[in-house]
Amino acid sequence: MPQPDPATEASRTPAVEAGGPQLPTYPQDPVPPQPPTPSNAGATADNPVYTDRTEPGEGGELHQLPGNGIPPLTTSQGQPLSDDQNSLKVGDRGPTLLEDHAFRDKMFHFDHERIPERVVHARGYGAHGTFTAAEDLSDLTRASLFAEAGKETPVFVRFSTVAGNLGSFDLARDVRGFATKFYTDEGNWDLVGNNIPVFFIQDALKFPDLVHAVKEEQDRGWPQAQSAHDTFWDFVGLMPESTHMLLWQMSDRTIPRSFRFMQGFGVHTFRFVDADGASTFVKFHWVPRQGLQSVVWNEAVKINGADPDFHRRDLWTAITNGDFPEWDLCVQTFDDDFADSFEFDVLDSTKIIPEEQVPLRVIGTMRLDRVVDNVFSETEQVAFMSQNVVPGIDFSNDPLLQGRNFSYLDTQLKRLGSTNFSQLPVNAPRCPVMHFQRDGHMQMGRQAGRANYEPNSFTGAAAGPRADRDAGFRTVERPESGTTRRVRAESFADHYSQAGQFWRSQTAVEQDHIRMAFVFELSRCEIPAIRQRVVANLRNVDEELAAGVADGLGMDLPEATEPAVAPRHDLPDSPALSMAFRAPDSFAGRKLGILVSDGTDGALLDALTQAVTSAGGLVETAALKVGGVVLAGSKARTPVDHKIDGAPSVLFDAVALLATGEGATELAGHPAVRDFVSDAFSHYKHIAYVEGAQPLLDVGGVADRLDEACHDLGSVTPDDLVTALAGLRRWERDV
């Protein structure tokens, strides 16, 4: 572990008097190298064996030698190695010797290089960035990161799925974690949220049951990374409080096109606290400046087969290309009077406050602009905890939040193996850290001096740190009273009204997708009674929804479940709950896939590429062979990005068919091309084509079904096409 630079430390900690304690210091995140770009990412592979510095071994093995800028290889203790190809043996073919400390060092570390993966949110991907405050929020909070407009705070964000393990696929129908660590000058603040503003349960006591139910079934070890099985639906069918979340889970929000195109939510009600100790309730929202976008279910299934790392690759590619994703951090703030008058309990994590009732206020913007240098060191070892707050941010009595605050510390100790996990660079605060915590596994702070306690009678720096009544964190003073009881508040008992409001606020297309998702998931349940119970609950949400799901399952409509509180069906629609409310207005950040062949018009290809990239989009080409094509009028072969078998249209937001003549005819005989065209059409995407691509339209079965989202490039300019692509999908298409 690299040690902090002394010059840097001198500027961030007080001088230590002779004989006094040296304040603990944590290794800081080093200055990052320039992230790779498409122009230099492969440079290290240009000469992979360094042929001018190699020697063959007696068995033909390759020995690469140091020199010319290549450092010598060492053990973990820094001892230079003479041979990293052979263990120490007796003779040529004799036994390996126990004294081979180099082998022992290498194998010991390899045998222990895995740590327990997260029980939930195991499959994640992270990136670094900066949060910039939009205004002075001192009227609401004393938190220093909001003290002035333009103030910048480093952040690390980890996106994740919830149910699947580390090796699962990206496009599971699942909630997405959206966790942000702010390295503020007053310590770390972790906003640990999801891409959905509500949750399945109201009390943290039920979290182990929820997770056990949604994970693979213990008697068979499957299904992986999905909720479409009996134990999950059995649990939520018996937990009516889950119903609102189920509507969100069955919506397109749980199959996002990209991490870059999804919202994030703090889920719980928190408190802002000002310098005088006055508090205001607050809910946090991340709103992507790129707009919202998801895929359709058939598309998700095929993406998982074609590229199970689709979301990870997308974020890495965007950042390394300089297309830095941005989110506005928005808040809903309200006082006790609003909380008391609101139709539902603001401490209930299965409820939202509609934006129409409390509008969003933008308080800053986050930009992600650097990929990690090492996925394990950063993305896997980052430790988020909801209890990590800074002065000016505090908790509410939300029982789910209270339970999370208790639980997360145990989780990090189990995974990272030491109470000193906060000293890992990705977790270390970027501000002075001064306390009397000592020792423990993997202690990396220099803890010299005599006093490791307080109060003590030393003076000056030798005395060590002291609590600061003025600047330190102060919990909001609030009156609490009542008899200790294990009870659920009656104000939490309405489980269906907001679920109905969410359903009615969706567009017809979104409602159709939700209904189909319920049908698919419940059809995977083997026990009929589970399906019946869930549909009975849905009757309290909306009769049309319940009837549609029952019809899709081929079952009679059961009697409605008796609700604890009669659901309200008069709540006004909330347009902000529909993804269409924040639909993109351009093709920026999206990808056009172009199918080319020998004879493709190079000028048109260049013009189309220029138009898309000028609008902030990406272009990738596919052909029959990855070696490339010979464009019309050229003798040289032009490289392509993909062989058609590895580039199905599900990987693109829109497609263009520029193959022509004999090349188009040859492509049309390839099964992958048929699927490329037919899938693009059935997934409602825009399709551009040239006259010579008719064989491709024919084999895809769409030649006589072309609509307004199918564009003849003989009559539509590339610029006009890119304008049309902003719509992304032609939902009116009859597929």
From TrEMBL:
SMART domains: Catalase. Residues 1-94 are annotated as: Disordered. Residues 27-38 have a biased composition (Pro residues). Transmembrane segments: none annotated. Keywords: Heme, Hydrogen peroxide, Iron, Metal-binding, Oxidoreductase, Peroxidase. Belongs to the catalase family. HPII subfamily. This is Catalase. It comes from Ornithinimicrobium cerasi. The lineage of its organism: Bacteria, Bacillati, Actinomycetota, Actinomycetes, Micrococcales.
